[in-house]
Design goal:
The chain is of the alpha/beta class and 230 residues long. The chain has a single domain, classed as Rossmann fold. It contains 8 helices and 6 strands; from the N terminus they run αβααβαβαβαβαβα.
């Protein structure tokens, strides 16, 4: 007989019981990636299963303001690179593969439409790059790893949505590509709060350090000439 499904609280307690929660620690060369805070997810369109991500957008803006601040992490990098991702497909949807079969509403994220625009509340800057992706991870088929290595990045700060899908996939790949991954807790969200809580705990237990947004802001504003935690 199969064991009964636990409550969310019981599932979260599982991680503590297993002794998860070890920290990797931040490095000295951070970048920020904002996952899929495009209008498809934040614009309140009836055709999308979104929700109000206003609190998460506000927390993300705190990260961006810190990254844009004069002297933020000033040495040895002159600035903290910022990247955004957006899901965007050609009208024929062949570039969406089977994901658009499993999740048909993704097929409305067509290139050239406002649905793929980054939410204007984040005030994207000309030097901040937008990565067009086709699948959950910011790394898959995008050249993102090459962009980070070109700037000698060692730490990736992750914000955006959704916690259970694209944030999770990006955090996992960040670890697999050898980056210190930090997920800013208040700057990520999901369509369902229970899904968010469970996946955030799982990400923090297995793949990345989950940190309060205020602590991440302090890190981004701190001098960069400190040794990385090993």
């Amino acid at each position: 007989m199969a064991a009964p499904l636990g409550t969310v609280e019981e599932l979260l307690a599982f991680y503590s019981e297993r002794g998860y929660g070890h920290r990797i620690g931040p490095g000295t060369r951070p970048a920020i990636v904002v996952i899929d805070f495009s209008l498809a997810f934040t614009g309140g369109y009836a055709a999308f299963p979104g929700r109000n991500f206003a609190p998460e957008l506000a927390a993300t803006r705190r990260l961006l303001d810190a990254a844009r601040a004069p002297g933020a992490n000033a040495a040895p990098l002159p600035r903290i690179p910022v990247f955004y991702t957006t899901l965007s497909y050609a009208p024929h949807l062949r570039d969406a593969g089977f994901w658009a079969v499993k999740v048909p509403w993704l097929g409305q994220c067509l290139e050239g439409t406002e649905l793929v625009w980054i939410d204007p509340s984040l005030d994207p800057q000309p030097a901040e790059r937008v990565i067009v992706k086709k699948y959950p991870s910011a790394f898959f088929g995008t050249g993102f790893d090459d962009m980070l290595r070109a700037e000698r990045i060692d730490t990736l700060v992750i914000a955006g949505c959704t916690t259970s899908v694209c944030v999770r996939a990006t955090a996992l790949d960040a670890m697999q590509y050898g980056y210190r991954a930090i997920v800013a807790a208040e700057a990520v969200g999901d369509f369902n709060r229970a899904l968010h809580a469970l996946h955030l705990m799982d990400i923090g237990s297995r793949y990345a350090d989950v940190m309060a947004t205020g602590d991440v802001v302090d890190y981004l504003l701190s001098p960069a000439d400190k040794p990385a935690v090993r």
